[in-house]
Structure formats: structure tokens, C-alpha cells
Amino acid sequence: MESGSSFVEVVASPRRAAVASMSDEEVSDPKALLEDRSKAKCVYQWYEYQKCVKRIEDDETGQKHCTGQYFDYWKCVDKNVSACCLYIQLVAEKLFDSLK
Questions:
Q1: Count of domains observed in the chain
Q2: Greater model confidence, 11 or 26
């Protein structure tokens, strides 16, 4: 795939994807791309995690942690990636139905 092309573009243009996959370019993971784009929708959870990290940075006992906030952030990212993948699946189904 060309750099800058997204998974949606690949689904929408299978011929282009086939040509791109034959080249010597490095293959990229679409999940990582989707996660990067979904992080912008989880700013509140990231902010809460950063607040927690700052609050406990002076803890020398090692008892305090921000695991809950960290998992809340990644749960939000995963939820948004799943929603995006569902949309891509629907677009792909419509595309392939029109090709039949």
C-alpha cells in the first residue's frame, strides 16, 4: 500500500490494493492505523490517565497505580476501532454486492 492510504481506500479499490500488495513496499497493519485515528476520540480518558500519573508520581511505596484509567483509555480506543471496522465491513459488503 502507498503510504498515506487507509484501509478504507483499500476496501473501496481492490484493484489498486492488488497492485500495491505486489510491490516491494512494507506492509502496514490496518489495526495500528485505525487505533491512531481512534485515539483522538478518547481525549477525556487519556486526560484522566495523565492526571492520575501526575498525582501518583511521588509515591515511593509502589502501592498506587493508574491501571484502571489506562484500561479505560484502551477500552475507548478499542470501541472506536470496532465501530470503524463495522463501517468498513458494511462498505465492503455493498461494494462486493455491486460487483456480482
A1: 1
A2: 26
